[in-house]
Amino acid sequence: MSDYLEIINRPHIYIDYETNMAGNIYLLGYRVNEQFQQKIMDTRLQGLANSMNLEIIDPVQGTCEILKLAIETNSIIVAYSEAERNIFKTLSAHHHNTNQYKDIPYLNLLHATKKWINKCYKTEFNALPPFRRNLNDYQARTLRRALCSVMRLTDFQAPKDYAPGKTTQRFETVAAALLLRENNYSKLTRVQKTKATKALKHNQFDVEALPVLFDAIKRDSEDCFKKSIKDCF
Questions:
Q1: Are the beta carbons of 192 and 177 closer than 8 angstroms?
Q2: What would the pLDDT profile of 207-220 be if each residue is shown by its tens digit?
């Protein structure tokens, strides 16, 4: 692995998958060259993809396209946690040539964020109230260092309708409704359409927040990235 300072100054590909606990992938959101894009990865959401003019693509193929882009542009992939890296590993079981991708650097921004908070914002972060009210202790602890919570230390904060833990339910509601209506998105109810747009909006925030957080950490203390970079595989 090259020097971490050289790596963090490469072009960035910011990514966020929307999945459920069973590993089904609904959506990939990503940002390249300051441009945000989304790809639908669940065929049950074909009607949503058609309505929103989004590409629908197999998860393995869509992921390989991102990895190929990283190679072509000598980029680093940036995500919040190890979740996206673990998805790469899972999908690689369906692709026979992952060796070409193994040296792509992957920045776990959550790891760097924890160092950044402890070093620069411990008092401010500890003073923040729970991100959402009426949570049990487990939910409050889980959400404490979630991206939406951490972004309160910046000027880029989650919208009021941002609802952690509800994205899977929203996608499943939309998928079931489209199945009943032959994938005709226009026939969905207003509530169902609202769930769809909120799910897409949730993913967009999670992607667009990443460069803001990266820049904040880089500005305050580049060494927070030092042990937060691994190879993609």
A1: yes
A2: 999 999 999 999 99
